[in-house]
Amino acid sequence: MTKKVLVILAHPHLNQSVANRQIAEVLKNTPDVTIHNLYDNYPYFHIDIKKEQTLLKQHDIIIFQHPFFWYNMPPLLKLWMDEVLTMGFAYGSKGEHLKNKKFMLAITTGSEQMAYSENGYHGFDIHNFLFAYKQTCQLCQMQWQEPHILFGSRKTTEEEIRNHAEKIKKHIITLTEAR
Ligand SMILES: Cc1cc2nc3c(=O)[nH]c(=O)nc-3n(C[C@H](O)[C@H](O)[C@H](O)COP(=O)(O)O)c2cc1C
């Protein structure tokens, strides 16, 4: 049986987006993928926790897609994590609903890759900023996938964004078809 994919998309101004809008468009047309747009669903930040937990249970591969904001995720996604990934659901002795699901990150940055280095503008390799995601994934017993990062997204061409999105799509298809 093929696996089902939930893309949790968090962009506060998707209508002004260049990169994430295009990436979401490609992922939307990938078999077995559901795009769950958080800012569309919860414009007033009132998250339906039960609905979100049910959605998570119904999918095998969970993807966070968002622009990188202050080395982190947009605020509604952080609130979603705080409220939805509860003890007894996502972690803790009885919290095994996410166990063995695969977790993938698809983010876009404003800065170019060389800015994310010891001598660069941001002082660290980008993976240093992703440790909290990785440990969250481990705590919830999910399987971490190599993240997809589109650097310098405001300087990339439409074709580069499309190629990047196609790579994510390919990765998703590999995961959905794996036994
Ligand atoms: C509030 C805010 C914080 C941001 N923080 C970062 C950051 O920490 N690092 C970075 O590389 N880009 C940062 N950016 C740039 C965004 O990541 C970039 O504009 C976005 O990835 C472009 O994607 P989009 O075309 O889908 O909007 C920030 C932008 C905003 C609005």
Helix content: 25-40%
Into which percentage range does the β-strand content fall? Answer: 15-25%
What count of domains describes the coordinates?
1
Unreliable stretches: none
CATH topology: Rossmann fold
Query: Roughly how many Å is the radius of gyration?
Result: 16 Å
CATH architecture: 3-Layer(aba) Sandwich
Overall pLDDT score: 97
Envelope shape: globular
Which superfamily, in CATH terms, is the homologous superfamily?
Answer: Flavodoxin domain
Which sheet architecture does the biggest sheet show? 6 strands, parallel
- What small molecules does this complex bind? flavin mononucleotide
Task: Decide which structural class fits the backbone.
Answer: alpha/beta
**Strands, count:** 6
First-to-last CA distance: 8 Å
Counted by DSSP, the helix tally is: 7
Order of helices and strands: EHEHHEHEHHEEH
User: Would you state the CATH class?
Assistant: Alpha Beta
Describe this structure in words.
With 179 residues, the protein is an alpha/beta fold. The chain is built from 7 helices and 6 strands. It has one domain: Flavodoxin domain (Rossmann fold), CATH 3.40.50.360. It has helices at residues 19-28, 38-41, 49-57, 75-84, 126-129, 131-139, 158-177; strands spanning 5-9, 33-37, 61-67, 102-108, 143-144, 148-150. Strands 1, 2, 3, 4, 5 and 6 form a 6-stranded parallel β-sheet that branches. The protein starts with a strand and ends with a helix. Bound molecules: flavin mononucleotide. Flavin mononucleotide is lined by residues 11, 17-20, 67-71, 108-111, 153-154.
